[in-house]
């Protein structure tokens, strides 16, 4: 089944582009130029734009992703990591964007430097959730809604990632996060 899943691989620091294309299962959904245009909307500095790498090789921040998705009537909701992932209602979401610390290799040593963040997507395809991290060789099946919530809780427990929930604009926050 994973052979029919769109899975873009990592190139330079364009993980935000890859994550969006993987989330929406469409290699034409987002391109570098789309996110560069949003960067310029947010800040007209071409070379020292705070929303991307000064080398213009990606490393886009959440502001860029949020503005880009708003143009397509999607919203990005930060998940409060003090809560249990079990409060997420997966019936009302497009998927997840995860922002994690990405290890940086220096002379064979892996260093976790918070500046080097990595975006990846988790989305539901035919009632099954998949991790579509562009650094993976192939999509990784997670499973049902209950299994993805356990997976999200494991991510939270590690404490090195942010979870963002992508929904259509019309979906209210109360529909996504079960409030007791």
Strand neighbour order, sheet with most strands: 1-6-2-3-4-5
Overall helicity: 25-40%
Total of domains? 1
Q: What is the straight-line distance between the termini?
A: 37 Å
Low-confidence stretches: none
SS elements, strand count: 6
The helix count comes to 5
Instruction: Give the overall form.
Output: globular
- In CATH, the architecture is Alpha-Beta Complex
Strand percentage lies at: 25-35%
How many whole angstroms does the radius of gyration measure? 16 Å
Sheet bearing the most strands, described? 6 strands, antiparallel
Descriptive terms for the model:
single chain; 180 residues; alpha+beta; Cathepsin B, Chain A; six-stranded antiparallel sheet; 5 helices; 6 strands
How would you summarize what this structure contains?
With 180 residues, the chain is an alpha+beta fold. It contains five helices and six strands.
């Amino acid at each position: 089944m994973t052979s029919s899943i769109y899975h873009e691989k990592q190139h330079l620091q364009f993980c935000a582009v890859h994550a969006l294309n993987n989330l929406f299962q469409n290699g034409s959904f987002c391109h570098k130029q789309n996110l560069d245009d949003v960067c310029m909307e947010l800040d007209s500095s071409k070379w020292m734009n705070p929303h991307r790498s000064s080398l213009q090789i990606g490393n886009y921040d959440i502001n860029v992703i949020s503005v880009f998705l708003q143009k397509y009537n999607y919203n990005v909701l930060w998940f409060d990591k003090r809560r249990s992932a079990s409060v997420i209602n997966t019936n009302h979401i497009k998927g997840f964007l995860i922002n994690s610390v990405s290890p940086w290799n220096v002379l064979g040593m892996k260093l976790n430097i918070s500046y080097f963040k990595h975006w990846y997507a988790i989305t539901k395809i035919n009632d099954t959730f998949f991790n579509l991290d562009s650094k993976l060789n192939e999509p990784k099946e997670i499973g049902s809604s209950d299994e993805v919530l356990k997976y999200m809780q494991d991510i939270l427990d590690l404490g090195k990632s942010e979870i963002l929930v992508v929904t259509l604009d019309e979906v209210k926050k109360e529909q996504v996060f079960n409030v007791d």
